[in-house]
Specification:
With 218 residues, the chain is an alpha/beta fold. The protein has two domains: 141 residues, 3-Layer(aba) Sandwich (Rossmann fold); 67 residues. It contains eight helices and six strands. The chain has a six-stranded parallel β-sheet with strand order 3-2-1-4-5-6, sandwiched between helices. It is globular and about 50 Å long.
Amino acid sequence: MKTHIFDMDGLLIDSEPFWRTAEIAVFTGLSIPFTEDMCRETVGMRIDEVVKYWNNKLELSMPIEATANDIVDELISQVKRDGKALPGVENALEILAQNKRKTALASSSSMRIIEAVIDQLHIRNYFQVLHSAEFEEFGKPHPAVFLSTAKMLASAPQDCIVYEDSRNGMKAGLAAGMKTIIIPEFPEPHMDWHDEADGKWKSLEEFDLSIETIDVRC
């Protein structure tokens, strides 16, 4: 019996545009010219690590916690106003529930954001575990968030399937020793890194329990 672990941003909810808007608003407010392409460099990372990343790359000294909190506040306001589930999400979760599969959410986002999203989408009851990388020493691409989630469900890594949209998330799933399916969030051509995943879908509308047994290596 397989355990299914879902990322959140860009996979369950189209929140990446919210993240980009929030990051651009906050960083620009700090007199840092910020673009959508810059946002794409850090997709899948914890927001504190995003701030650290730009501090290092641009040789800045933004206050990490305060800046991260400002971005999160802006993001949550957008989620509560406009957040919608991506295609296939509810059907995939319903199939797993009907077949009594262990199902979890493991995200780089803070628990505050996770709570806001699952309540906005009305999907809380589908998950046995909600886990944030904020409780780990390292965020994605480190596998800690997935390994801890599997442990919470008493599942071995080899019995888990991870669903991700970002390169950092994919790397984390593979490093955890879990079958990893990618559904890239950005409308882009096939990229070399996509071939590292065990499978690639256009959306969760392709979800089927046969994924548990099929070798779907790209």
